[in-house]
Design a protein that fits this description.
Blueprint: H1 2-11, H2 21-64, E1 68-88, E2 95-108, E3 112-122, E4 127-128, E5 131-132, E6 135-147, E7 171-177, E8 182-190, E9 193-196, E10 198-200, E11 209-213, H3 219-222, E12 227-244, E13 250-257, E14 263-266, E15 282-287, E16 296-298, E17 309-313, H4 319-327, H5 330-348, H6 354-375, H7 380-403, H8 407-428, H9 433-451, H10 460-466
Parallel strand pairs: 1-12, 3-13
Antiparallel strand pairs: 1-2, 1-7, 2-16, 3-6, 4-5, 6-12, 7-11, 8-9, 8-12, 10-11, 12-17, 13-15, 14-17
Helix pairs in contact: 2-4, 2-5, 2-6, 4-6, 5-6, 5-8, 6-7, 7-8, 8-9
InterPro entries: Uncharacterised_IM_CreD
Pfam families: CreD (PF06123)
Keywords: Membrane, Transmembrane, Transmembrane helix
Amino acid sequence: MEQNVNTTQNNEKPQGFFQSNTAKIIMVGLLVFILLIPLQFVKSLIFERAQRQKEVIHEINEKWGADVYFYGPIIKVPYTVYEKTKIVDEKTQKVTYEITPYTEYAYFFPDELKANIDVNVDTESKKRGIYKSAVYTSDLDFKGTYSLPDFSSKKTSEKVEDADIHWDQTRLTIKTTNIKGIQGSANITIGGTKLAFEPIAQNTKRERESVMETAPVNIKELLANNSAPFSLNIKYQGSESLSIVPIGKQTEATMTSNWHSPSFKGNFLPKTSGNKAQSFPAHWSISYLNRPFAQQYFNALPDLSDYTFETGFITPVDEYQQSERAAKYGFLVIGLTFLVFFLIQTISKISIHIFQYGMIGLALIMFYTLLISITEHSSFMLGYFVAGAAVVVMIGLYSVSILKGIKFPLFIAISLSALYSFIYVIIQLEDYALLVGSIGLFVILGAVMFVSRKIDWNNSSSSTAKA
């Protein structure tokens, strides 16, 4: 009996390093990192398609109408100032003064500015191929009051005389972008007189900014009672955003729109409807005390583009952004799937070749190419479901041939489905994505530790041989 035991022990071949669990773990780990190369190509493909979408949308927007920036209306009054130049005669040393007149401009903002803004966003009518842009038509209706300009506030050593103020050469001016998108005419009625704005050639610091002015008018006659109401209506075809400078001493603005998820930006946030699910109507109430600029300027009109209230009309998270977020979890999906296969291999004593691991890894990467290609022609949810179901079925059927049964392949299919569902939930969440992700990974780690707690990592191969 003792001789038979010794004979059995002598017949056992010593386990080589490449047959050990350590070597298998190293090879599977290296394969995971190798598969990151094609996964990176998939991420590049998603980025390339996203860039193509941006280019097409930019082209659509440029033809339809770009973003809208509105700054006005402003009273622009020319006045004459005199420059005194000292001249000394070299021979006689006599001192004389030469006075040179030149024209400067004073700019006055309205006392009250009320804006009624209606924006209708349409994402279906403007598209090219599979790409579409959120373009809008807007109706801007401004009302307010103007007071007669007061030059006494000009900070200078010399007072501006009334005779040097050219009241009859006053113009009303606005600064705006996207004059290409203006529909019809732009008219202002002030003091009962209707005036039309015309674009003028002028270089401004703000890119794509244009200046529009009316014909000269006698502002003193229009403001005969020292103040007068005005109204201005202008219609735009635009895209992406609409921003307005609150130049009134008291500015009130109300915006209504059919867009479901606006982005309120700029220097002032609105009050929206009481229902959190609704963003419109939005209302702004801005006093001159709330902004760091005055009601009148001399010599030059300042750039106030940093002090607007702005509404953005863009898709918050599009399909490419969601696909990119899904691809970032590719390493996690591949690693956890390989871990499940390795644990099953260790527990069931079934040998899985490194080539078979490679086929499973490539199937997991194909999920992302399927996702982006299907999503481009449908919704992200449908693309995710179809791509996930296809990969789960493929790996499940492949596992049946590898693991020679139905129990473990069924477990793998359920685990992979749960993993894809978990990642989908994380992608959809914004505020709680980190919390849910951390809890989920903690649970997964605990499950792996529980399953692997009784595995004899040193003798599992030899046990397999004995079995």
